[in-house]
Write a structure and sequence with these properties.
It is built from 25 helices and nine strands. It is an alpha/beta fold. Among the domains are: 5-102, Fumarate Reductase Iron-sulfur Protein, Chain B, domain 2 (Orthogonal Bundle), CATH 1.10.1060.10; 312-429, AF0625-like (Rossmann fold). The strands form two sheets. A five-stranded mixed beta sheet has the order 1-3-2-4-5. A four-stranded parallel beta sheet has the order 7-6-8-9, with helices on both faces. Strand 8, helix 24 and strand 9 form a beta-alpha-beta unit. Helix 13 (204-216) crosses helix 25 (420-429), helix 15 packs across helix 18 and helix 23 crosses helix 24 (398-411). Bound molecules: iron/sulfur cluster (2 copies). One iron/sulfur cluster (SF4) binds at residues 21-27, 44-45, 48, 78, 81-82, 84, 86.
Amino acid sequence: MAGSELNVLIDKPQQKDLDRCVHCGLCLNACPTYRELGIEMDSPRGRIYQMNQVANGLAPIGESYIQHLELCLACRACETACPSGVQYGRLIEAARAGIENKIERPAGVRFLRWVVFRNLLPSPTLLRITAVMLWCYQALGLKALARSTGLLKLFGKLGRLEQLSPEAQLPTFFKQYGKVFPAEGKRRYRVALLGGCIANISFARLNEATVRVLQKNGCEVVVPDTQTCCGALHVHQGLRDDARRLARQNIDALTEGGFDAIITNAAGCGSTLKEYHDLFEHDPGYEEKSRKFSNLVKDVNEFLASIDLNTNMSPLKVTVTYQDSCHLAHGQKIRVPPRKLLRAIPGLTLKEMAGADLCCGSAGIYNVLQNDMAMAVLERKMENVNRTGAEVVVTANPGCMIQLQAGACLHGKGQTVKHVVEMLDEAYRGAPSLT
Ligand code: SF4
Ligand code: SF4
């Protein structure tokens, strides 16, 4: 058995959550994997049925069960579609933890997970070293050469995966850790900014733009050096004990910091940060603390749309389309705020695409682990993007940005991909100074 006895008992789908599903099937059409394959066992209803079978000892945690659950994007579109209030996100995360507690993965997989999840993601030092190595690969022109010569095609799936590898941006955002950035004008709020893990090295400029936009809106921005990776990727892989360790560090470091909000610009992180209490249901010491912490967490779109927004912006004459990040739209139920912010930019035209809230196929590291399905989903997404004629695809999650960049490259019409915050930053930077 791979997990402790306590984990086996607590980290599995709870019967009360499973019983909410009345098998109506109203979620099926919202499910990207069901739309692709048309297989009941790869639909939300089918997956819940399988979880129920396992929970009641009627089926084993076998190859088929693992396969159907791993093919789920955990996009939670089914949660939005469900009229019975099934919390599918809770179910799939608990079911994956149940798998990890019961089975022993091959030695190579265990080693890779130990390197990436236990050591790399929570370590600023190792992430910085990774950034330098990635940067050298880029700077030597190897990446460009591999792409331009079509060399990657020779490597099949490996070549496609290279297209999804994040780029390093130096200096990394770790350089800003421990700093306090003053509000522009009168200080209205004091907020903490979470830098993420990979985002610190691959989206350092986005994190800096987030600081600037918050400053423009009267925020004193603190980048605490006591923060760590949020554990979202760990939760998605069923590695709940690792996620708990990281969650405890963030809760202890940030809850009592006197912040009006703890801000993240990554929808995937935000969703997990707001649901930390799910990890501590059986730990009374941390359940209450985690709820207090989660109440302070705000997605940057949510926060900016809720305050009196600084509208001193220069016009951006551009047509954009907005891709809902699943963990913002379905996980956090935030759809209007990013659109409201984009519409506040003068000159900008927002053209909605069909199925904007259907997953792009990124889903954390799903696009690496389930590349074929992720690419099929991405191709559908790009068909809808192309129909809008937009020059820019805007979204609200770094992971989605990488996936959409690959989409624009493979199936697009030269679109660029931006975060909502980057659009605001661009508009603020061109605005006349008021002082
Ligand atoms: S989370 Fe997404 S992929 Fe998984 S069952 Fe629900 S809709 Fe389908
Ligand atoms: S998850 Fe909800 S919508 Fe889907 S079958 Fe169950 S009750 Fe119906």
